[in-house]
Design brief:
Its EC number is 3.2.2.21. The protein has about 475 residues and is of the alpha+beta class. The protein has four domains: about 70 residues, 3-Layer(aba) Sandwich (DNA Methylphosphotriester Repair Domain), CATH 3.40.10.10; about 110 residues, Arc Repressor Mutant, subunit A (Orthogonal Bundle); about 80 residues, 2-Layer Sandwich (TATA-Binding Protein), CATH 3.30.310; about 150 residues, Hypothetical protein, domain 2 (Endonuclease III, domain 1), CATH 1.10.340.30. The protein contains 21 helices and nine strands. Helix 7 runs parallel beside helix 10 and helix 14 packs across helix 19.
Length: about 475
C-alpha cells in the first residue's frame, strides 16, 4: 500500500488505527520516530519525515518513541518484500535461524548462495540479513522490557543473545538507550497462577482494525479439540511444542485497544521469539484487511462485503494442519473434529508437567505417530496408511511447503495440500475450489464471479465463502 505524504499526514493527525504499522513518523527536532497512533502532541508538518518501516527510520538515525513504542505496531506489509525466497528467509530468521547457525547454513536451506542472499536483503530491505536479525531481536527485547518484569538477563536469553555485554552493546547501538533506561519507562508485570514449570510471560500483540473476532471465535469453536485448545467469549488458547520446548498460551481480545493480551507459559525461554511469531500468525495479526477486502470486492463484483475484518485462522504447525486435513477428508467438520480429538489422545506426552485447570493435551510429533496404534481410529484402512506415510515423510525432515512432493504421497490430493498450506503455513492465496462448502457458496453468487481478481488473497475469499453458509 503506497501512501503519499498527504495521506500520512491525515492519518497521523487523526490517529487512525487502520494505518498503524503502514508507515512511521519521524520528528527531525527530537530524533524520534513514532507510530501513526502516538498519543504525543502532533508535531508540525515541516518537522516530520515519513518512513514505510521502523527499520528504515532507525537506519536514518531516529530512535523509537517510548510512548507509542513502534516495536508493538502491527507488522508492516513492506517487510514481506516482493520475493518468495525473501519471504522464506525472513520467516526462518524470525524463527531464530541466524541465532543458531551461520548465514551460510541459511543460504543452503534456501537453495541460494550466501552472496545472492546478502544482495537480496540489500535490494529489498536495505540492510544485511544479520542486521535485520539483530534489529528484530532488539525490538523484541524492548517489548519485553516494557511489558514484563522479566530480569534483564532472561530478556537477553529470550531474544537470542548469549552474553549481557553483547546484548547491551547491540541495544545501545540500535536505540541509543540502555536496557535499564527502557525498563524504567515500562509498566510491565509478571503473570501469576498455576503454570507449566518454566517461564511465565504476559505480552500485548497489536493488530490493525477491523478485526472480526466473532467469526474467528466461531471458526475455532467448531473445530476445537478439548484439552489441546480452549475458547472463551473473548479468548483463545492452546498448548504447543517446539522440539524440547513445550507450553501454552491464552490470547485475550481487547477490541478497544486493537490488540490481544497474551498470557504465555513455556519451558524454554530461548524459544520465545518463534512462539510469539507463531501466535501472531495463528491469529493473523499482521494482515492489511482493508487492502484484502478491496480485492475480494472486485472478485465478488460488489462495492462492500457482508462481513468485514475477516482473518485467516492458523494452525500451530504445517504437520498438525496436514494431519487435520487428512482426518477431514470426505467427512463433516464435526466428524473430523472427533477424529482429531481421538488422534491427539494417543499422545503419550499428554499431561506433561502442567499444573492447571485444564487437562492438557499436546499435538504429537511426526516421530511419535510412528509408534501409535492407529487401529483405534474409526476410519478406512487406506486413510490410516496415509497418516502413517505423511508422518514418516515429515519425520524425515522433508519440507512441508513442497506442494509437488506432498502430492506424490498416496492418499494426499490437492484439497489436502491446499488446506495444509492455507492454515498450517498461512499462505494467503489458496482458493479451495474443490471444497464442498465453497461449491455451495458459489451457487449463491452471480455468474460474473472471478476468483483470480482476489489474488493474492484467495485464502480470505475461501473463508468469506464459507461464512456465507453460516
Amino acid at each position: 500500500m503506497e501512501l503519499t505524504s498527504a495521506q500520512c499526514q491525515q492519518a497521523r493527525l487523526a490517529r487512525d488505527h487502520r494505518y498503524d504499522g503502514l508507515f512511521f513518523t519521524a520528528v527531525k527536532t527530537t530524533g524520534i520516530y513514532c507510530r501513526s497512533v502516538c498519543p504525543a502532541p502532533a508535531p508540525k508538518e515541516e518537522n516530520v519525515e515519513y518512513f514505510p518501516t521502523a527499520i528504515a527510520a532507525a537506519n536514518a538515525g531516529y530512535r523509537p518513541c517510548l510512548r507509542c513504542r513502534p516495536d508493538s505496531a502491527p507488522g508492516s506489509p513492506a517487510w514481506l518484500g516482493k520475493n518468495a525466497t525473501l519471504n522464506r528467509a525472513l520467516r526462518l530468521i524470525d524463527e531464530g535461524a541466524l541465532s543458531e547457525h551461520p548465514l551460510s547454513r541459511l543460504a543452503e536451506r534456501l537453495g541460494i548462495t550466501e552472496r545472492y542472499l546478502r544482495q537480496l536483503f540489500s535490494d529489498e530491505i536495505g540492510l544485511s540479513p544479520k542486521s535485520y536479525s539483530l534489529y528484530q531481536q532488539c525490538l523484541l527485547a524492548k517489548k519485553l522490557l516494557h511489558d514484563t518484569r522479566m530480569p534483564i538477563t532472561d530478556v537477553a536469553l529470550a531474544c537470542g543473545f548469549n552474553s549481557i555485554r553483547r546484548f547491551n552493546d547491540c541495544f545501545r547501538q540500535q536505540f541509543s538507550l540502555t536496557p535499564t533506561q527502557i525498563r524504567k519507562q515500562g509498566k510491565g508485570s509478571v503473570t501469576t497462577g498455576k503454570k507449566i514449570a518454566g517461564k511465565s510471560i504476559e505480552i500485548t500483540l497489536a493488530y490493525r482494525p477491523p478485526y472480526n473476532w466473532a467469526y474467528l471465535q466461531q471458526f475455532f469453536a467448531s473445530r476445537l479439540i478439548p484439552g489441546l485448545e480452549w475458547l472463551g467469549d473473548n479468548s483463545y488458547g492452546r498448548t504447543f511444542h517446539y522440539g524440547n520446548c513445550f507450553g501454552y498460551f491464552t490470547a485475550h481480545h481487547q477490541p478497544d485497544k486493537a490488540s490481544f493480551r497474551v498470557e504465555l507459559q513455556l519451558s524454554e525461554l530461548s524459544y520465545l521469539p518463534r512462539v510469539i511469531k507463531n501466535i501472531r500468525r495463528c491469529l493473523d495479526l499482521d494482515a492489511d484487511v482493508r487492502l484484502i477486502e478491496s480485492q475480494l470486492s472486485r472478485a465478488l463484483g460488489c462495492e462492500s462485503l457482508a462481513m468485514e475484518g475477516i482473518r485467516l485462522p492458523g494452525i500451530w504447525s504445517p504437520f498438525e494442519a496436514g494431519i487435520r486435513a487428512i482426518l477431514g477428508q470426505q467427512v463433516s467438520v464435526k466428524a473430523a473434529r472427533n477424529l482429531v480429538g481421538q488422534f491427539v489422545a494417543l499422545n503419550p506426552d499428554n499431561h506433561k508437567s502442567v499444573d492447571s485447570a485444564q487437562t492438557p493435551y499436546f499435538f504429537p510429533s511426526p516421530e511419535q505417530v510412528s509408534r501409535f496404534d492407529l487401529e483405534k481410529l474409526k476410519m478406512p484402512q487406506r486413510r490410516r496408511e496415509t497418516l502413517r506415510l505423511f508422518s514418516d515423510y515429515a519425520a524425515s525432515d522433508n519440507s512441508l511447503d513442497d506442494h509437488a512432493a506432498l502430492l506424490e504421497l498416496p492418499g494426499i490430493g490437492p484439497w489436502t495440500v491446499n488446506y495444509l498450506r492455507m492454515r498450517g503455513l498461512s499462505d494467503p492465496d489458496i482458493f479451495l475450489s474443490g471444497d464442498l462448502g465453497v461449491k455451495k457458496a458459489l451457487e449463491m453468487l452471480p455468474t460474473s464471479f472471478d476468483d483470480t481478481l482476489a489474488a493474492p488473497w484467495r485464502s480470505y475469499l475461501t473463508l468469506y465463502l464459507w461464512s456465507l453458509l453460516s
